Amino acid sequence: MAERTLLNQLVEALRCLPGVGPKSAQRIAFHLLERDREGGKRLARTLAEAMERIHRCTRCRTLTEREVCPLCANPNRDPGLLCVVEQPSEIVALEQATDYRGLYFVLGGRLSPLDGTGPEELGLDVLEARLKEGGVRELILAISPTVEGSVTASYIAECAEGTGTAVTRIAHGVPLGGELEHVDGGTLALAFAGRRSL
């Protein structure tokens, strides 16, 4: 059995990061200890502070240091548009790639009863209450086109029934610059089913 040294504990702790296996964790640990101790100390301080101070926005559930995130607090955003995403990182992607000026709601995943992820874990009760408040004209579902994503989208659409909110879903299909012969069958079927007039 390997000795439980501080170095071993550091390597094991680094493995909690996505995509970091045993070899990568060992490489990172040795790099910080041998070449960048100041960077390692800065990383440790910032990580500890972030874990302590960053939490979910009370309005949209994205990650923020404030009670209400800067996007929700921005009076120039259109409160009548609400885009539902799975993860906070998707807000960053949409903000960089589009000119969307509405607000967001972050689920933190998809419905998956087998994994123990139900409506409560995704804050769907909070979303439903927000829709019942009124004021949301369009609910845009930017959810992955997986089986769980489709179930989640259907559940949210049912929650929105009777609130006067139009529910739309972002288009899925052939990527820009993609050639049909190289696109998988499922993606091609989605693209064909979601065709629109020009």
Compact description:
By secondary structure, the chain is α/β, with parallel strands linked by helices.
Q: Globular, elongated, flat, extended or rod-shaped: what is the shape? A: globular
Radius of gyration: 21 Å
CATH fold-level name of one domain: Dna Topoisomerase Vi A Subunit, Chain: A, domain 2
The sequence of SSEs as H and E is HHHEEHEHEHEHEH
Structural topology:
Elements: H1 6-14, H2 22-35, H3 37-53, E1 55-56, E2 63-64, H4 70-73, E3 78-85, H5 88-97, E4 102-106, H6 124-133, E5 138-142, H7 147-160, E6 166-169, H8 185-193
Describe the fold and architecture.
Helix content is 44%, strand content 13%. It has 198 residues and is an alpha/beta fold. It has a domain of 96 residues: Dna Topoisomerase Vi A Subunit, Chain: A, domain 2. A 4-stranded parallel sheet has the order 4-3-5-6. A two-stranded antiparallel ribbon has the order 1-2.
Features of this protein?
single chain, 198 residues, alpha/beta, Dna Topoisomerase Vi A Subunit, Chain: A, domain 2, two-stranded antiparallel sheet, 6 strands, 44% helix
